[in-house]
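Checked the freezer inventory, then went back to the computational side. Two predictions to log before the end of the day. The first one is the construct we discussed on Monday; recording sequence and tokens without edits.
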Amino acid sequence: MGFLSFIGLIVVLKFLVYFVLFFTSDTDLELWFYDKFKRNFDSFKDKVVWITGASSGIGEHIALNLSKHGAKLILSARSKDKLYQVKNRCIELSEGKLTANDILVLPMDVTNISKHNSLFDNVISHFGKLDILVNNAGRSQRAMWEDIELGVDQELFDLNVFPVINLSRIAVKYFNQVGRGQLVATSSIAGIIPAPFSATYDATKHALHGYFGALRLEKLHSNIHVTLLCPGPVFSNFLKESFTGRPGEKYGLTHSPTDNRMSTERCAHLSCVAIANKLKESWMAKFPFILIVYFTIYYPVIAYKFYELYGYKTINKLRDNQ
């Protein structure tokens, strides 16, 4: 075998290895590439990042990740005590990169839209700028489609959509003035392909893709970037806090430690890779969810044959382990 043939064989084998790794990976192709070869975390140094829903779950762990790389943070959620706990952990993990003044605890109820402008002014007053807004607050849902009361539809849109859009519009007007900025929103795999027993939640996440997709097109030739994070099932209290079909009711189911779910730490890490590289849309979920998304988008006929063959119970078992 000649030298060039040997090199060619090595290249082919390497490609096959990457191909197999990708199709069993927990990310889409673009995010997989950046996570392997170009994380770009140094870009976070001295950036000012505002995270809503920062007291727990994905938002908390995004904050913890960013603190390691020197990002200055605004932490928002309803629980002031939990936010201070997150702040203290961020300072500890920063290993001297951040002081107490570099992390602003800003308690807020995102549904109180009338307060958004004043809260935004507080951020600019404290840091003098805002570089990245991460819209992470929200809740999921489990209910039969026909059993969902209209009040639940209204409550979920009032939490998952309208506060995100209102706060983002305030941020975009500011970004227009300073000539740069990045909007990030935590969507879901359910914002790409609908999931059963989550009709209203699916609709709220599809709505985010519509709103931010239009914004991304309008800002194509600007220095304003839009990143949509689309996680699948993740270990958190998300399911326990989910809406049902009746207003004011919580689903209450907790996760089993044997669930096939992505860890919150892994999800936050991948989210930070997507944010650092200003990726437009990033999918993250354990096998086989990413493969299912690709098939549903690019081969919808095959995907629906799969759904017809195995039914919603298989999909629900993959998602909720029930």
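The second is the one RB wanted added to the comparison set:
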Amino acid sequence: MEEVADIVIVGAGIAGLTTSLGLHRLGIRSLVLESSETLRITGFALTTWRNAWRALDAVGIGHSLRQQHQLIERIVITSTISGKPLSERSLRTKGKHGESEIRCMKRKVLLEELERELPSDTIRYSSKVVSIEDESRHLKLVHLADGTIIKTKVLIGCDGVNSVVSKWLGFKPPPFTGRSAIRGYTEFKGSHGFEPKFMLFFGKGTRSGFIPCDDQTVYWFFTWSPTSQDKEFEDNPAKMKQFVLSKCHDLPDQIKAVIENTLLDSFISSPLRYRHPWEVLWGNISKGNVCVAGDALHPMTPDIGQGGCAALEDGIVLARCIAEALKKTGDDDNEDRAVFERIEMGLKKFGKERRWRSIDLISTAYMVGYIQQSEGKIMNFLRDKILTSYLAGLLMKRSDFDCGKLTTIY
């Protein structure tokens, strides 16, 4: 069966749904293809910095999400070697783009809010893309696992680290960093009692963080460099829990209690992958009427909390670039060619705007994670005595960014 859709977005994650909603706000319809049967909420939560809130405000859902998530006031960084706080600083600072705003957002709440704002038939679930081919210079054919073929003028890949679209554009699979993460969240029956602080611990080759989402929920993460023996608990939440507790025995009792109270179905383990910065520099973010965004473009380690934020930025910029391209008019006799050329230029504009931002975030995240999780006396000294405040400042600097509004210029 063959269908036609002007704009096809592959992946109903943060980047895909934000792009679709941005287009919808600008009066442009899109079709989102999602391989799973429902919204994917892997990861449980994400840190949303000031740059993310600008994007959420641009698509009109920032106010609702603020009501459901606690404002984080401070960050406290503690060495697990000495047990002493190395740095504590306010997160309520002013930058070039206004006052900072940091919250820990439940991924499920964000995705459901994005979905709720879209027309009901925008997302098509159980629609796995298996291949892409040229129907003509102006059109792409998207082949699904169930045999359906969708003909489209614009194809956007927001299909994550294993992206079919990024592979079509020539990107290599993101390599393993040598580090893995276990994530979880705990919902308390009453108030959890934590202050609105981001609590970060590192040393002895591990890195962990704890941050409240609201009055009853605390999200946490733990990163380490796994050995071959660690593979045995990848799909065993009970062993994950035991492993994390064994590595976090030096943490304060209130912090360890968060892990102890985490239900087994609230654990997830995953390898940390990233895109080499030079591949983003030289690769094809777009080609003709095809492009990628989100983790399909810039998978990064979670060490500065910018993966989801960058995906939100992508969605706003991409929707704006596509709308500008589609709403321009010309007097070309060949309308199909004219539309294709405008789309091609719009996607190139997106790539140009996002290339260096992506490189900056990928590189910074990798460096911060490497330094904070490294071992050795020299590195411990440099990190604990010299670099901690600098690294904390980087989190603020990389979030001081404005992706702009959805308004278009014709």
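For RB: The CA atoms of residues 66 and 321 lie 27 Å apart. The chain is about 35% helix and 25% strand. Let me know if you want it refolded.
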